[in-house]
Amino acid sequence: MSGSVGEKTQIIDGKEVAKSVRRALKDRIKGLAAAGVTPGLAAVLVGDDPASQTYVNSKARACEKLKLYSEVIRRPADISQDELLGIVNDLNANDQIHGILVQSPLPKHMDELSVTLAIDPAKDVDGFHPFNVGMMLIGRPGLLPCTPHGIVKLLEHYEIDPSGKQVVVVGRSNIVGKPIAAILVQKAPMANATVTIAHSRTANLAEVCRRADILIAAIGRPDTITEDMVREGAVVIDVGVNRVDDSSTEKGYRLVGDVDFDKVAPKCSAITPVPGGVGPMTIAMLMSNTVEAAARITGK
Ligand code: NAP
User: Fold this and answer.
1) Short-list 178, 257, 249, CA closest to 221
2) Where does the pLDDT of residue 3 fall: very low under 50, low under 70, confident under 90, or very high at 90 and above?
3) What does the pLDDT look like over 43-75, one tens digit per residue?
4) CATH homologous superfamily of domain 145-279?
5) How far apart are CA 74 and CA 60, in angstroms?
6) Among protein residues, the one whose CA lies closest to atom 47 of ligand 1
7) pTM
8) Chain centroid to CA 96: how far?
9) Catalytic residue among 120, 124, 126, 258
10) For a tag site, which of 1, 170, 221, 266 has the least CB within 10 Å?
């Protein structure tokens, strides 16, 4: 992130908002501790994918910082699906654990949906179980998927009310695109938007995007959203996390979003940077779901 961001452009600071989510959680966690409850999160990691290891480690660290109980269960890539289902069933029955996540991607011989279906919906802190997906769709309380929930929190913090606005979501994945669209279309506070979902087969993508008061990019390709696709004064939420080669950095790469930030930002009223925008919110909302799940399961 660099360059000439217009003075009128608000940079949405995901790190700060995530901090404020964690601050609010601390009081809740203290209350639960007084009632003898320590929320517990179990992460199951199958195989040795480096990105998955990094994600799981940072989730465990986030638990530690908030004094939540956490377990990481590591298994080699060649364990059987039945073995994994056995682990999930044990965690379902474990009273110390209120949140279960099975880190994706799973090895090719496993069926992700069967594993998701095996998780007790009350402990499904990723919000991927079809029960929770259904509850989200009909606007009933359940566990919301972390990244879309984090986007709503960002908008709320910056008092960007989607009500009556044209929202265009680019991307239709089950973890970001579809759920954020489903949340923002609800007849509910911080929703009531008119939502369009675009994807790789959308005709005239630039024209569709230009209609957006709030443009949400969840694509996974750098620089897909260019200056000509964004209306003056729009709010842009960049969910993408992409590695691009950069020999000037120690690691040889840097992280960028899906939006050509330097060119697009000056046109926006507000925009999320990458890194430091949506990313920090995802883990914060995972912590929030774990605390919420513990409170609901224990009735405290
Ligand atoms: P995904 O499952 O690969 O979905 C990408 C979507 O983008 C698909 O719907 C695809 O269309 C669409 N698409 C691809 N190229 C396009 C193009 N040129 N024009 C319009 N649409 C296009 O990805 P995802 O899991 O939703 O993740 C998206 C990005 O968000 C990734 O970079 C991921 O790393 C990042 N992410 C970040 C967080 C976070 O915490 N910050 C969390 C989750 C994901 P089709 O359906 O037609 O193929």
Assistant:
1) 257
2) very low
3) 999 999 999 999 999 999 999 999 999 999 999
4) NAD(P)-binding Rossmann-like Domain (3.40.50.720)
5) 13
6) 200
7) 0.96
8) 25
9) 126
10) 221
